[in-house]
Specification:
By secondary structure, the chain is mainly β. The chain has a single domain, classed as Methylamine Dehydrogenase, Chain H. It contains 2 helices and 31 strands. The chain has a 5-stranded mixed β-sheet with strand order 7-8-9-10-31, with no helix packed on it. Strands 3-4-5-6 form a 4-stranded antiparallel β-sheet. Strands 11-12-13-14 form a 4-stranded antiparallel β-sheet, with no helix packed on it. The protein is globular.
């Protein structure tokens, strides 16, 4: 099951843009036409629409493409390599403890692993249509993820051992983050609260004060505090590990989508409909960087170079300096994906289930 809010925002951005970047299929356009009546064979263009993004183990940024069943790697100089991951809809992605990237596949109801060579493996979930959504690396070295439709939190060891925890109340868990205190924090999108889960499965719940806030993306900042977006309001929330909650109101036109933190104490949120990225300063002030009308910043992550990297559903990856200088890179390889064509492709199950 797709996460409806995430998918809807990307579709809206694509519609507003009016077009998507496309990678042409191989053709014989250079050869002269033999006859005027001979129509060229029909080809299907691949929509390049990067979705989620994360910093990798190799000082590069990695992103998912759920339209094309691919995962991409963009180096800090902007060069791109893509990897086919079979019949999948890769959604959220995180760097694992094993020099590999791990990702959720809600269409296949499974968690995927992609190693640097391009070989991929999958671990199926036990619950049909669980809707695996967000994923994070825990302090315990395991992968933790939300099951949005099944109202569960999953834990997966790097060797493939799966454990699932049923939540005490329905809520539609969305984003998840691993905090410095060793706990997992996740946003209960439908029930308007942030939950904390200890590694042993114990749950503490923190209701939000405003109805309909719809918390979604959540991160653990370097200072140990949890920051999250509120899709139903123009606010960014902050939760201290001791349970103290603060909220920061953004300008009326800015609906926060995804969130990231940098080492200078700032927290950044994308607002795709407003073509903007907001910075929440340590003193609570909000600065807004308005981008061109053609830029739709989606998911965002801090890179190893100190810059912010975000996906654009129009087929680009954006690199934004903390001073507000934007550089955009095509999300498709320059040489017709030669790296993808040579990557080994496997569809194996790992671990015991």
């Amino acid at each position: 099951m797709r996460h409806p809010l995430l998918f809807a925002l990307v579709v809206i951005a694509l519609a507003q843009a009016g077009c998507a970047a496309r990678k042409p299929a191989e053709s014989s356009a250079a050869a002269p036409a033999a006859k005027a009546a001979a129509a060229p064979p029909k080809t299907h263009a691949i929509i390049v629409a990067p979705f989620a993004i994360a910093s990798g183990f190799d000082r590069a940024m990695w992103f998912t493409e759920f339209h094309a069943s691919r995962i991409g790697r963009i180096a800090l100089d902007g060069s791109v390599t893509t990897f086919n991951v079979g019949a999948a809809l890769p959604e959220r992605i995180v760097s694992g403890p094993d020099d590999a990237m791990w990702f959720t596949d809600p269409a296949g109801d499974r968690i995927g692993r992609l190693d640097p060579s391009g070989a991929y493996t999958y671990v199926p979930l036990r619950t049909p249509d669980a809707g695996p959504a967000s994923i994070t690396l825990g302090r315990d070295g395991n992968l933790w993820f939300t099951e949005h439709a099944a109202n569960r939190i999953g834990r997966l060891t790097p060797l493939g051992t799966l454990t699932e925890y049923v939540l005490p109340h329905p809520g539609g868990p969305a984003g998840i983050a691993s905090a410095r205190d060793g706990n997992l924090y996740f946003a209960e999108n439908a029930s308007n609260r942030i939950d904390r889960m200890a590694p042993n499965g114990r749950i503490d719940e923190f209701p939000l004060p405003n109805p309909g806030s719809r918390p979604n993306s959540i991160i653990a900042a370097p200072d140990g505090k949890l920051w999250f977006t509120e899709l139903g309001a123009n606010r960014i929330g902050r939760l201290n590990p001791d349970g103290r909650l603060s909220e920061f109101t953004l300008p009326a036109s800015l609906t926060p989508f995804d969130i990231a933190a940098t080492s200078d104490g700032k927290v950044w949120a994308t607002a795709p409909r407003a073509h903007a990225v907001c910075a929440i300063l340590p003193d609570g002030r909000v600065d807004t960087i308005y981008l061109a009308d053609t830029v739709f910043p989606g998911f965002i992550a801090a890179g190893p170079d100190g810059n912010l990297w975000f996906t654009e559903p129009t087929g680009k990856i954006g690199r934004l300096t903390v001073a507000g200088v934007l550089t955009e890179f095509p999300a498709a390889p320059a040489a017709n994906s030669a790296a993808e064509a040579s990557a080994p492709r496997h569809n194996l199950l790992i671990g015991s289930h």
